[in-house]
From TrEMBL, chain A:
Superkingdom to which the source organism belongs: Bacteria
Protein name, entry field: Carbohydrate ABC transporter membrane protein 1, CUT1 family (TC 3.A.1.1.-)
Residue stretches making up the ABC transmembrane type-1 domain: 83-300
TM segment ranges: 25-53, 87-108, 120-140, 167-191, 212-234, 278-300
Membrane association type: Multi-pass membrane protein
GO biological process: transmembrane transport
Record family assignment: Belongs to the binding-protein-dependent transport system permease family.
Gene Ontology CC: one annotated term: plasma membrane
InterPro entries in the record: MetI-like, MetI-like_sf, UgpAE/MalFG_permease
Keyword annotations from UniProtKB, A to Z: Cell membrane, Membrane, Transmembrane, Transmembrane helix, Transport
PANTHER family cross-referenced by the UniProt entry: BLL4140 PROTEIN (PTHR43227:SF11)
SUPFAM superfamilies reported for this sequence: MetI-like (SSF161098)
Subcellular location: Cell membrane
Automatic annotation (TrEMBL), chain B:
Swiss-Prot/TrEMBL keywords: Signal
Extent of the signal sequence: 1-24
PROSITE patterns recorded: PROKAR_LIPOPROTEIN (PS51257)
Protein name, per record: Raffinose/stachyose/melibiose transport system substrate-binding protein
A family per Pfam: SBP_bac_8
Amino acid sequence: MPPLRRRRTRSSAPGSVIENQRRKFLVPFVGPAFLFYTLLFVLPAIGAVWVSLHKWAGSGPMEFVGLRNYERVINDSQFQAAFVNTLLLLFVAGTAIFVLAFALTMVLRTMWGRSAVRSIIFFPHLINALVFGVLAGFLFNPTGLVNTALGWFGVDNPPLWLAKENIFPLIMATVIFTTTGYYTTIIMAGVDRIPPYLYEDCALAGATPFQRLWHVVIPLTWDVFGTCAILWTLSSIKIFEIIWVFGGSSGAGIPPVESWTSAVYTYVTAFSGQSTPAFGAATASAVISLLLVSVLVVFLRRVFRREAIEF
Amino acid sequence: MSTVARKLAPTLMVAALVALSACGGDTGNATDPGGQGGDSAKPESISYWSHWKEGENQQKVLAEAIAAWEEETGITVEAQWQGRTITQKLTPALNTNNVPDLVDSSFARLAPVLAETGQYASMQPAFEKTLEDDTSVADLIPKKYIEGSGLQIDGEPWMLPYTISSEAIWFNGAQHPELKESPPKTWDEFTALLDDLKAAGEVPLALDGDIGGYNAMWFVSGYVREHGPGSFAELVADESGESWKSDEVRAMAERVEALVQQDVFIDGYNASKFPAQQQEWATNKAALLLNGSWIPTETGTYAAEGFEFASFPMPTEQQDKVYTRTDFIGFAIPSKSDAVDWAADLAAFTLQKEYQEKFASEAKVLPVRDDIEVSPELAGVMSEIEKADAVYQQNDAVSHPGYIEKVFWPIHNELVLGNIGADEFINRMAEAQAQYWQDQS
């Protein structure tokens, strides 16, 4: 067995030929992307920060209020609850997704017909979240499919599935269901890269499945995990449409406050359609929540920063 | 990644994250409310953004009117059938030069975006147009719609309604002919009826409890029908929140609490997804439904065979005066329009008898003119509007930023869904409202 070599993740030493070549291509390659990025993302983002310092209905006069919107939003118990929901999605649903994805990867690794199974578990990710929102009523209404099925087993008092306090746990379960397959596919690709002889070495050395997992599989897929964690963080904070359609908003209302995330809070503040838009408060909530999440991303990057193992 | 790119990465990442959900915007324009946005020189075309989507019955009637107007004036109407999200598209558009000349939507949606931001042009030219028989538009619209309803600002109308909607307690007239003859008029008669229905083995009331606006009808309409248009808005405007502790509010909150305690709402109304419960009602699994005048068209496709839509107004102890919810759907002209007069002309054109009759007979909605015969399903609702001494809007036209959806609905939902009683409702409303106004100051 060839020894595992560790390589530096940082680029080669300054002044090397490769580094010089890279520098030469920096402007032509990065320049156009940077320009578009600045125009389409950075400038609107700065505009959003500017709007957040005003009281503004989206059109008409703007009144400068300084950091008042930030103060209001931070002290608003509904924003706090919405942000907690965002964190629940990020950490609780995220942990469940990764534990399940990893477990599925382990089960599927040696399973017959695994590529077919991989396609099947990936499938829910391809379906628009709106479909699950619509299905929620079909499944969980008092006279829906789930209660009808429970009735066959003699359950006369089924839980109030769609009570407003139960909607968010249901949304989390749906997110876990739809997302696990996606990360399973990525992690499986990472695990598939591990050369089979390492497993043979483990077998010869008498390693237990746990030891194999701990000493071979996890270290060799750590960088894949790191990437997946960042991907999940970025996508989890944007979860919006499934919450919007899951409860109360099939064209006639807005979801119950109990299921709002910070993205929904932002949207309702700006676009509820029921009252004068408050763009200043909406952008303030977007800026606050995204700054906090940015801190989390930096933290996660540090947690997952390890020297990649080359094999 | 090179050193430079690596150094840039965190900055870009943060910026991208912010941009992902934050909205950029222009500073907008402070305009003269009611100012005339353009001249009357005949344009080649005018643009119109609609509340309706292609294929909806109202859209078909409007499209027909537009085609006739195009032929008459020789001006092309560039119509965009935007649907219900029109105001969300209109708000950012108002900061650009690409502003439609004419828009239509409900009063509740247009007022926050156009009226309260002063981004409208006066609709007076439309009210001054004369239609058939040389009658002016202003004379065709009942005065009580215009007076005190929020349609006018500083004496000038900013919106021209072409249809109206209302609410009522709906029932199947084929199953309950007795309610057509003698509907309950007072609250006591109503609760007695609910008891009778229960005793007869029927579920008295259906309610999609996940829709805050439907739940709110019980309190808001109950309150305004007792105390008159503007009374709920006045309650909301109290910055101390103490008005919520008044006897009038307590009586109304206790009325709603008593309904919940009477156990008259359909099972699972607190844990279902719209439109599950109105479907149950339309298939005769509940006797009554408090909802809008859109119910016959909305539930018509799945209603039980032989279902006869009939309604009676929400009972009230107020027997001297009649106050009826009358929501407007109508046109408004953004102040940046450069064809104000022509846009007003098109708006007025839809009030001709021909199109108003089509709104009534084909779209099965209530036309704004009161000289049009409405569909039999809506006759009861129309009669209550005709009887009204004064009319009020949805939520009594309250549109303070975030108040309805963040303060009133969440707490009121708890009351209707049976999670809190009248006392806690009152205390929480008083406290939340005081906090709301403190935050707004």
